[in-house]
Amino acid sequence: MAKKNISLKKGLQVIVFLAVGLFIFWWVYKDLSVETILAATRNLEYKWILLSFIFGLISHASRAARWKMLIDSTGEKVRFINTYLAVFVLYFVNLLIPRAGEIARVSVLSKYENIPFTRLLGTVFVERMTDLLMTLLLAVVIIATNIQTIQSFFLENPSLIAGIRGFFSIQLLLIVILVAGILIFIYLRWAKKSGANFKAKIDSLKENFISGIRSVKNLKNPGLYVFHSVFIFLMWLLMLYVVFFAYQPTEHLGLNAAMVTFLMGGLAMLAPVQGGIGPWHFMVIETLFIYGIPRVDGKIFALVAHSSTNLIYLVVGLIALLLLPLINTRR
Questions:
Q1: How do the domains of the chain map onto residue ranges?
Q2: What are the tens digits of pLDDT across the range 193-237?
Q3: N or C: which end of the chain has fewer CB within 10 A?
Q4: Regarding predicted confidence, which is higher, 314 or 23?
């Protein structure tokens, strides 16, 4: 009964967040006619969108190689093709259920490579911490080199400052600590009542998870790991940048504009909405407006950039799910 209640709660959360995202999307695009969108898409330079897709494939290959390095350093051996396809599963599932992609990629790789789930989860934790560090460093660089543009953005959208402050507020931190404390207390009481067998299982899970985290200390080539971490973000940036050239009103924008747009779009992805739909479009449109792009053109660009990227994730992610059992038939 408890599991059903938890599943129902999570399902409702997914639906509510999706509804909020779709409402924002509708609010942004309610004044833009379908004819205007279709006319713009007919004049797109699709070779640049294809190049964006290629950059996406390369970034995922680099991400898979980096993850494989961490897994190999735990003493396990995995095939690159499985890690590569698992990364596509990550993005595919995230489009359906926000934040669930990490669990999905760990699940499929654990299944086909016969590696403890929690050990892989530990390596993913290291990856996410690396990405967080890279995001912070990139944000510092972009803000430092485009301070006036970013100030203009928030002056145009003062309500966003309050929202970001609320997201990182001390009150929120205290609530998270309090909830974590309650969960730990419940866990300790439960573990005490469940006996030695349960404790042994938990200890085994904890040991595997810690082993995954320690993988970063046992890397054979730390320099290559750092290279992949930087290269992944570079490819993500280029994925967005080249789409500027696909649409005539944005083709004159430079790399600086792409960096600021990339950062603002990244902030929108903090919202637990499938694919950032709605918030991502709003942030990109408002950022481009600072660079002199009329909001009508900004709306079309955001729609093209977001739709092309996520359509690729849906198609290739589905192909990855179909290929995994075929490639691993002997396993």
A1: 34-327
A2: 655 555 555 555 555 556 556 666 778 888 899 999 999 999 999
A3: N
A4: 314
Count of alpha carbons within 13 angstroms of residue 62, beta-carbon side: 19
pTM: 0.76
Q: Which residues contact 221 (CB under 8 A, 6 or more apart)?
A: 69
321: number of Cβ within 10 Å: 16
- Helices of type H across the chain: 2-29, 34-42, 46-72, 80-96, 101-113, 117-145, 147-156, 158-167, 170-194, 196-213, 222-244, 255-268, 279-290, 295-327
What's the rounded mean pLDDT across residues 297-318?
88
Burial class (CB in 10 A: 0-12, 13-18, 19+), 144: exposed
Which of 271, 265, 267 lies closest to 243 in space, CA to CA?
Answer: 265
Residue 18 φ/ψ, nearest 5 degrees: -65, -40
CA distance 276 to 21: 7
DSSP letter (8 states) at residue 1: -
What does the alpha-carbon distance between residue 241 and residue 287 come to, in Å, rounded to a whole number?
14
Query: Would you say 265 and 276 are in contact if contact means Cβ atoms under 8 Å apart?
Result: yes
User: Whole-angstrom Cα distance, residue 238 to residue 244?
Assistant: 10
**Residue 182 corresponds to which tokens in the numbers above?**
């309650």
Largest CA distance in the chain: 68
Sign of the Cα torsion 52, 291, 32, 23 reads positive
- Please list, residue by residue across 230-269, b when 16 or more beta carbons sit within 10 angstroms of its beta carbon and e when fewer do: ebbbebbbbbbbbbbbbbebbeebeeebbbbbbbbbbbbe
What is the average pLDDT value for the chain, to the nearest integer? Answer: 79
Highest mean pLDDT among 114-128, 222-236, 306-320: 222-236
